[in-house]
Amino acid sequence: MSTYYQGKRATTYNRTWKTFSEKTLSATLEQIDKPGLYEKAKNQDQPVRILDVACGTGLLLQKLTQLFPQAELYGIDQSADMLDQASQLLANQPHIHLIQGTLKSDQMSTLPYQPASFDLITCTNTLHYLDDPQAVLRGLRALLTPHGQLVVEDYARRPFPFPWRPFEWLIKHVDPQHNKAYTPIEAQQISAAAGLHVLSSRNFSAGWMWRCWVIRSTVGQQ
């Protein structure tokens, strides 16, 4: 969750990244086990609970509330300006709760959510910002209900002949909080090291410049 997205960058985000967002969020939604969540909704007394981590302008939350209209949805993001955009987009949706917060490896235990609270957690286009992605995913794992699912998506580090090193240098020059992009295999390894069991994964393109991956995991056995 990067504070790079403030001011004009926040207000123009949806226009600037329209095609990229459509493709990455569509891939994320396709990876969710929707029948499993619908079954949970029928068989438990309380509504399905969904958390979108680094929710940005709320585009994914908007799509999730359309898919799961009875669910309780939560969004957290570091940027107050991005949350302002989300609040406008999601106005008159009392079952969606937005808060400002950060994903830091040493602060995961301070997130204002109880363990085993969420049936679904999503996290899109964010892993490359994290200081310790394994620790953050472990923290998110603790927030999953038994058999809950974590769906993580991000753009991938591209192999030769793509000039990745100068490309990533340019990304860091524009957005200094960028840390590191991961290959699909590395992302699965990080998930497994965090105690998650990878159920499915998919690689896809979000434009000629961007190669992406999306992974669905659940609470693993330790």
From TrEMBL:
Domain (Methyltransferase type) ranges: 51-150
Pfam families associated with the record: Methyltransf_12
Superkingdom, natural source: Bacteria
Record's protein name: Methyltransferase type 12 domain-containing protein
